Amino acid sequence: MDLTLERIKYIIAVVLYGTIGMFLRQVSLPSEIVVLCRGTLGALFICAYLKSRGRRIDRSAIRANRSWLLLSGVCLGLNWIFLFAAYIHTTVAIASLCNYMAPIIVVLIAPLALREPLDKRKIPCVFAAFIGIILVSGFWKGEAGGSFGILMGAAAAACFVVIVICNRKMRGINAYDKAVVQLAVSALTVLPYVLIRNCGASLDWNARSVVIILLLGLIHTGAAYCLYFSGMASLPVQTVAVLGYLEPVVAVLCSALLLQEKMGLAGWIGAILVLGAAVIGERMGAAREGDPARKE
Question: Which of 6, 4, 17 is CA-nearest to residue 219?
Answer without folding.
Answer: 17
